[in-house]
Amino acid sequence: MEEMNNNTLTIILPSTGGYLNGIKMLEYVPKNRIKAVLKSGIIPDMYEAGSYNEFQAHTCNGWDNPTKQIENYLKRYSNEKEGVIVEYKKPKSNIGRVFPLKSLGLTTIKREIRNTLIDGLYKDFDIENAQFDILRIDCERAGIPCNAVKAYCGHRGEWMADLIDRFQIGRKQAKRLMLSMTFSSEITLGWVNWLRRIKAPLDSQKPIWVLELEAELPTIIDSIRKANPKMYETASAKNKGKSRENKLGTFFSMYLQEREYQLVAHCVKTLIETTKLYTHPNPRVKEPTGIYEFDGTKILLQNCEGMDVVGLLNTISANFGYPVRWADKEMEDIKDISVALEQVEDDLTPDEELLKVL
User: Fold this and answer.
1) Cα–Cα dist 292/265, whole Å
2) ∠ CA 18-227-253 to the nearest 5 degrees?
3) From the CB of residue 245, how many other CB atoms can be counted at a distance below 10 Å?
4) Is 123 in contact with 304 (CB distance < 8 Å)?
């Protein structure tokens, strides 16, 4: 085994929070679609328990329900620029992903609403198996044994299918189940909690590869913790006063999200600076036009024509030190709002009034 190199695992946090912290990007969306979504009845009455985006929107940013959030998103609409300017900000800790200010951006709006609003306008690119693949690369460089992680990355497709069959769940639920192992200090407990949350049978026997991951991850997390003591202090502070502490789980998720953020931010920065992929259909609009989405980005469909965007992203990532696999993903959960669209009249309310956010 190679000698462990803790410097490989040490994350250096940019003092500014990185390229996307504070950036303003334009989300090109037809105004009538936003109004139609509000009229259509497809917006749920309440936020979903267990969704961090929805927790942020409700608890951190004070929106009573998803409808209020989308109404205020509409109020920021610029008729001149045919979209909404979204400012992204990191949390106070300066660790992890950036989020739209006040949750007024598509990234933090429920998936089926988001994808319905931009259906046919954008292509969706994301890193396949982002956090586990990033973890594999970091461990291999640092000389940390990670056979179970490597095996999962190599067999993810068939093993996810095994989970779906074994626990009688959908693919999204299987993905959430695997990600539960990255934010709980008690890996086994995190798994059981998610089985309960998705109402899967608890008596199904775990596959051997899950047991091997559960045995391997605590050692990996401890090695990463030792290399990032300040980040662990921040994670510990976040747990202060909670009835049940999850210091290591909070730390591990912060580490993986910061790694993921730095990689995606670098890719977006490179594409903005070296291509026309993030340009608005109207050349007078200067803001980069597109959407940041944690482990990926959405880019206007018309800008992607004739471009090998996946190949570009793979090359940029490899040159940054992370030879991950990007994919052009089909957008799912699109709702039919055709009737509501017919009912909506074009509204040319002046931008000054639209910007009066509650």
Assistant:
1) 9
2) 60
3) 15
4) yes
The span from the CA of 280 to the CA of 78, in Å, is 13
Nearest to 329 by CA among 296, 290, 292: 296
**How many Cβ atoms from other residues are within 10 Å of residue 230's Cβ?**
11
Predicted TM-score (pTM) of this structure: 0.90
Kindly report, residue by residue over 64-116, the tens digit of the pLDDT. Answer: 889 999 999 999 999 999 999 999 999 989 999 999 999 999 999 998 999 99
Query: How many Å apart are CA 358 and CA 340, to the nearest integer?
Result: 25
Phi-psi category of residue 277: left, alpha or beta, with phi > 0 → left and psi -120 to 50 → alpha: alpha
Amino acid identity of 242? K
What phi-psi label fits residue 171: left (phi over 0), alpha (psi between -120 and 50 degrees) or beta? alpha
Residue that has been written with the tokens 């910007």 in this structure: 355
Question: Given the structure tokens 């769940």, which residue do they identify?
Answer: 169
**Residue among 181, 219, 173, 215 at smallest CA distance from 197:** 173
Name the nearest CA neighbour of 104 among 25, 32, 33. 25
Tokens of 239: 């747990």
Q: What are phi and psi of 3, to 5 degrees?
A: -70, 135
Burial of 52 (0-12, 13-18, 19+ CB in 10 A): middle
CB 215 within 8 A of CB 146: no
* pLDDT, tens digit (0-9, with 9 covering 90-100), for 131-175: 999 999 999 999 999 999 999 999 999 999 998 888 888 888 888
Helix%, strand%, coil% for the chain, nearest 5: 50, 10, 40
Task: Report DSSP state, residue 47.
Answer: P
* Helices of type H across 13-129: 31-40, 52-55, 66-75, 111-117
